[in-house]
Amino acid sequence: MSNHNLSRDEAATRSALITTHSYDVTLDVRDAADPEVAGYPSISTITFSAKPGSATFLDFISGGVQSVVLNGVPLDIGSAVDRDRIILDGLAAENEVTVTGTALYSRSGEGMHRFVDPADGQCYLYTQYEPADSRRVFANFEQPDLKAEFTFHVIAPADWEVASNGVEAVRTPATSDPGVARWDFATTKRMSTYITTVLAGPYYKATDHWGATLDDGTRLDVPLALFCRASLADSFDADELFRLTKGGLSFFNELFDYPYPWGKYDQAFVPEYNLGAMENPGLVTFTEKYVYASRATDAQYQARANTLMHEMAHMWFGDLVTMNWWDDLWLKESFADYMGTLGVDRATDWDTAWVNFASKRKAWAYLQDQLPTTHPIVADIPDLEAAKQNFDGITYAKGASVLKQLVAYVGFDAFIDGSRQYFRDHAFGNTSLQDLLKALSAASGRDLATWARQWLQTSGISTISAEIVEDGGTLGAVTLQQDAIDPITGHQELRPHRMRLGLYDADTTGALVRSESIDVDVVGPSTLVAELNGKRRPALLLVNDDDLSYAKVRLDPVSEHTVRTSLDRIQDPMARALCWTALWDSARDGVTSAARYVAAVEQFAPAESGIGVLLNVLANATGAIERFVPAATRADVRKEFLAVAANQLQAAAAGSDQQLAWARTLADVSRHGDSELSLIRGILEGSTVIGGLAVDAELRWSLWQALSAHGQATQAELDRELEADKTASGREGHALASAARPDASVKAAAWDSAVNTTGLSNEILSATIAGFATAPADMLKPYVEPYFECLERVWAERSIEIAGRIVRGLFPAAQDLADGMRPTSHPVMLRTDEWMQNHKGAPRALRRIIIEQRSHLLRALTAQASEG
Q1: Catalytically annotated residues
Q2: What phi, psi does 807 have (nearest 5°)?
Q3: Phi, psi dihedral angles at 82 (to 5 degrees)
Q4: Whole-prediction pTM
Q5: Residue 266 near residue 241 (C-beta atoms within 8 A)
Q6: How far apart (Å, rounded) are the C-alpha atoms in residues 489 and 476?
Q7: pLDDT tens digits, one per residue of 420-473
Q8: 25 has which bridge partners?
Q9: Where are the beta strands (DSSP E) in 229-313?
Q10: Is the link from the previous residue into 131 a cis peptide, with omega within 30 of 0?
């Protein structure tokens, strides 16, 4: 059994005993390109203070430890190494320990990930650590509050690009092998282990620089670099990325009034990345899915800019000032999510950043916050497995939404003044909630303790609706009703909301425009809005206009009628997005039918000009059809929706983002319905030409996947397509399409490769699982019992990243409710409940995934029952 799972108590004990000073780390990856070489030499020398005579341990998940030397004395490996920990006993006041071992290359995206490019056979390396995988690369004290200075040395092929957090100081050719060189990097400032990083491989590199004159007259000069795989260089829009980077650095340096502290600013776009990006100081890593080799929409480019700004904000929130422990993960992620959107809004040309935040990011938070596993923004994180699970919609998007509400509550200037003081007080240190509240309270003049308890330390979501009494078209009493129960405690948690009410009516052209807005403070279960008394009844009264607060909104009957008949006439993009969200929340909650939501999408999506909102509502409609609409009517609802998608594909402006959105939707929905497969085959073969539609690699694979799911694509056809697209994304598309074929032997092979073998890398594993799951429930029924039987074995044998993908992706979620059956009596629900009852001792993180998947299934079955 491993001892990977460091607890909060163990971390607190260790930080009370020691203070870390420095790391000197040497990694020898010269043989990485040889697939037979599983690992590489790793040498880590650490200096630290300790309580004399005390004992502690280092973390190192490795392929073996060759030596441990503590204060000049070699330790006995047999007694010092306890699985993934190295015991250090009899410490002095000042200590130096050197650990020499073999670290292992990864295919899971954890630690040192090794990727071989199928396009040209080149080998690429990068590291990814959050929350605690630097211990897979070098021995260290793996917890965020034990900061230190780091000096990295990397031995690698001489013709590679190699980078780390610090600038390259010296590069020395190896005397024994001219094909090998050693890179020595400058020592960093104090940082946490999880944000150290190394990049190595034949990467394409572009360079630039950014500078600013500081208030004291000194010049801040920051070298910039961008990296991507060589085979993607032709698709790499480095000039645009540099433009965004410079705009963001200028914006955040001025906003935070604290000069960028990390010397250089590199950004690398890397393959098979588990995250959107990671905020390593001086070398931010991103998923290479942001390098658009196929046609991308404006919303995708804006989302990439948002991620870029999010990671840049982390240079201050998270890197300069870091949480003590993962309980306060929100101190970096919530702020970065808020600041990322703010950066796009204020430092780029896009003017829909907050609209897309309301439509997509916030929807993620609403979904997560309605699960049984919801948690406060300031969470209880007892160990590293729990930390891994909490990189979720609560910590990111709900936290950012609550910060937006805080800005409305205390004012933007006070919020920024408090943040600036927070950086000055805690630079290169660690903090908790109280440290931030102290700074914000001082800046705003408000005691934020009560606000923090209500918003940050409770869970769940409020639902706010307007109850309206009117007389002859005139408003009488208008009351805002707040319903909020903390699902963890069961207590009513009525938060204070600073909200805006928008009154919308038709103008002379028939467009629905805001005629007036009123700011209100919603307090308690019922708030009377006296300012509306006597005003003319608007066609639409929009609660939470401008999306200032975090709450679900129920439309009053008149407003709902207006939205369902005239949504396309609402001129303001934010108001329109909020109305789309209200319709979706109503359908998800079973208040109105999923089929009605799909009908609204069919009616109004063709006129939706906001591509980010359009992509979101089309995805919602797809999910509603396949999960929420009852089986008896699903085929008809799907066929009608596919007909709309096909019509809009041909009616949309040639080459427009809207055209591409409808094409993707046609492909996605056609995995489950066959009414438009002849059109899809025609597009692929070129016999049907849609003017302006770029049928490039990404779209082609989506169309092939639709055909394959219905047995209308042979394996030979898929293999020929792969032969023409020897890229990483092509390999993933091929894996999904191949596993989607509706053949029992295909499904058995896909299951076996995902569950019983370890040969699949993280992204190919996910593609294989997605293809396997693309099938009618009856075809997958034989795998329900094997799924529950393999759970604990998979969790024990695989890394948490890979195990999580398997457990989440293979859950038998595609289920329908039989006539007369209660949702909780569905056989999969009963089997899930049985497993939970019989496996109370299973790891918390595993149980959390199962609980969440059960909740998603229950919601779907309940929605089907409400329409049945």
Answers
A1: 311
A2: -65, -45
A3: -115, 90
A4: 0.97
A5: no
A6: 37
A7: 999 999 999 999 999 999 999 999 999 999 999 999 999 999 999 999 999 889
A8: 44, 152
A9: 265-270, 277-278, 283-287
A10: yes
